[in-house]
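Thread title: Can someone regenerate the structure for this chain?

I was given the following input by a collaborator and told the matching structure tokens would be attached. They weren't. Posting the sequence so someone can regenerate them.
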Amino acid sequence: MQNKPKNKKAVSGNRSGIKALFYSKKAGIATIAVLSAVIVALIVLLILDGTGILYGFDKGNNVSIPSPSCSDTTVYSEEGGIYEYMILDDGSIMISGCTADRSITALTIPSEINGLKVTALGNSSFFMMTWISSVTVPEGVTYIGSEAFAYCGVSTVSLPSSLMYIQNNAFLSCLYLSTVYYSGSTENWDNILIGIGNTNLQRNIITAELE
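Best answer:
Regenerated them for you:
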């Protein structure tokens, strides 16, 4: 018996289907590779600052993250505000929280508490103080923690020349922030290690040279 000729169209169709599946899988793998690269890049950006230096490492100014000597929090009251603070290893103070009178719209953070110098403002220490329109950080403060002033209503901020480190999102969503006074030089400002999420701060800076 003579064999019937094979259906060339069916064979061709099967090959086309296999090819399409092959290229579809390749496209899927390529897409996953691109997405993985984007995720890795985002993680790197979160870890590094704009200069490619890891947070907490030296940038020519020997910055170190403040370390409390103990976990005890002490309360200090003065006119217009109640401050929570911790004593650091070097004997100076890190303010860890603040409850300010809502009638006070211009907040001046104390430079000393009970005879000890204030050198750091801890994470979320002034978080969501929406009624504050201006804040003055005193000379001697070297460190401002993550989200220290996040969601505050500040339009004006005064920063000291002693400042060395501003953590991620320290001024996150400060929508009214339009003026930032810095008592040091432009060169000194450029040496401050500034974390991500502080674009509004950097965009509105006025150094002592420009006043």
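The radius of gyration is 28 Å.
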